[in-house]
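Q: Hi! First time doing this. I have a protein sequence and I read that you can turn it into a structure. Is that right? Here it is:
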Amino acid sequence: MHDIKAIRDDEDGRYLRGWSSRGVKDAAGQVQEILRLDAALRSAQTAFQAAQARRNGLSKQIGQAKASSDEDRAQALMAEVEGLKGEIDGYYRAEGEAGAALKGLLEVLPNLPADDVPVGEDEHGNVEVARWSDRAAAPAGRLNATPKDHVELGEALGLMDFEVAARMSGARFVVLKRELARLERAIGQFMLDLQTTRNGYAETSVPLLVNDDAMYGTDKLPKFADDQFRTTDGYWLIPTAEVPLTSMVRELVTDEAELPLRLTALTPCFRSEAGASGRDTRGMIRQHQFWKCELVCIATPEQSAAEHEHMLASAGSVLEALGLPYRTMLLCTGDMGFGAKKTFDLEVWLPSQNTYREISSISNCGDFQARRMDARIKKASEKGTRFPHTLNGSGLAVGRTLVAILENYQDEGGRIAIPDALQPYMGGITHIGGSE
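A: Yes, that's right. Below is the predicted 3D structure, encoded as structure tokens:
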């Protein structure tokens, strides 16, 4: 959500420029409509308060008139009060209508980009800022000279079954068996252990069903309702653990001495992928249900930038521990998520596609979500409160990590080598399937 006072006082046109750079249609018209509704709201509030004050004053005079036995004056004053009821009701309705319209407009406008975010329309405007390893260095001696994709590898091993999943659930689901099912579990546990023991995140077990308030506060509603799954009794299946983790501070005042608050959870995630029709229909890249190790941080505005870098390094440490080549991209204004002010994507190398694919987005949302949640922070020595900054990212998406391991650790015989870091979680297994 946006600070209406900041928009009202925006002499430099920061909102106009920011929204224009993020692809908001007719940003100038949107700003003017916001200002019009804000003026209408404040006018209705002023008129409503004045009419209430007038009514209260008349009521006092009625009491005085009755006390002095001036019944004619009392009756006249009572008639005037009665006439004010309709006026007050009208101002109250006008206030409610203007307030609802203003809120409805502000809640579907994206966060403003940070000053150092490159301007661009889509992913082509993203900027590579770092690269770890080189794709040619993908596990030496293991990579197939003509790499197969993860679907071909998994099905050849008899451990990945999309047909069985489709019969029970439809498209964008998979059944993993035996060693691959164990590998999926191992990846998630390794991620959780790494984030808690090395990177300072507190393991948290959260609900997988949340209410409207939790989804609204983390900017998933109302704009992205079609991308979610909803139960028949009004709950939402979480699209990411960001929702319950961030919502832990909703409508609370947190002591700044407790910040930064770093949280992590390994959960299933559920997405309808309504906006991804026709994209990545083959395999495990884009599914309705998947596991993810999520990272969330609640920070002061002063800690925010450093925590963003820490979260980025924390996500990258997983790929480095697994020996998976990746690059870091700074997203442009047109490719960032709705609630983000600045986002880095980690993209892992997939040999079968001869390209890098996103495996994690690390976003700083500033105070955008905190305003929607009415989450506040306070120093013990000070009276007032302020909004914290919220950050979130994948550390990492388990399914896509599984895909990357299958493709980067395959050999000519179809075997999949298990990264050293995962072998303790696999009971010492060093390879899956295939032949020497």
